[in-house]
Amino acid sequence: MKVGFIGLGGMGEGMALNLRRAGHDLVVHDLRRESGAAAEAAGASWTDSPAQLAAEVDVVFTSLPGPVEMRQVGTELLSALRPGSAWFDLTTNSPTVVREVHAACREHDVELFDAPVSGGPKGARTGKLAIYVGGDRQAFDRSGAVLDAIGDQVLYVGDIGAGNTAKLVHNCASMIIRSGIAEVFTMGVKAGVEPDALWHALRQGAIGRARTFDRVGDRYLQEAFDPPSFALNLANKDLRLALELAEQFDVPMRAARLVQEDFQEALDRGWGNRDSQTPLLLQNERAGVTIKLSADEVQVVLDRG
């Protein structure tokens, strides 16, 4: 299958390379010419525009910063994609925007799927990604097998927009949970419990055994926010999209609004390019505590099971 891939950033490059490793004839494009170097070295060919790429392929993938960029690229794609083509948008996007673009795609006989991914840059490189897919079920059954090259959990969620709804719920929950963990952690530490002992205790409780708390070990507990795995600027965009979706359906989001306030304060401090867990430092400051374990101390707790 001849596959096009647009957007070769921290996530896109790894996914594009895995498509190539799976044997697909790959054509790539990015705003930055140098971003295509790794894909070209793996045998992909470069195109100078989305329209040029669209004219050459059967399936196109886009991995872009957000809704605005997806709309812009989509305009060029629809000018050149052949009828019957499939477009998988891997962007974490607005379900409303995705549905609007989907309607335009239908007019061109192009099948659009919203297919945001979860797993970070490491997952993009290793193929350990969850992919939340929204779109026509029959069309997905015909075209969806190509996703197996980039993810190990390809999950059809529902009609167009459902993929991003699932991703926004996942990411919003993640942000709320981490904020809550920081709150209770500062209480425990200020009350006199050492952070490694407290973390171990939480992990062995009913909720902790689900490993909810493991994800804070590599960033928050070590104060290791640079370089980012998931930048605050991008996380803030996802949270904003989740709140827009909730507002659309009149769903109150008190906890998420509090997280948004912390995100804004962190952005105002110039932390946008740091990891998305950086706002958790604000809770430490408010409580007047320092929580910082070494990587070895974190591993000791993990090794204890």
From TrEMBL:
Transmembrane helix found in the keyword field: no
GO annotation terms (biological process): L-valine catabolic process
GO molecular function, one term: NADP binding
PROSITE patterns in the cross-refs: 3_HYDROXYISOBUT_DH
Gene3D superfamilies in UniProt: N-(1-d-carboxylethyl)-l-norvaline Dehydrogenase, domain 2, NAD(P)-binding Rossmann-like Domain
Entry annotated with the keyword Oxidoreductase: yes
Family: Belongs to the HIBADH-related family.
Protein's UniProt name: 3-hydroxyisobutyrate dehydrogenase
Record organism: Amycolatopsis saalfeldensis
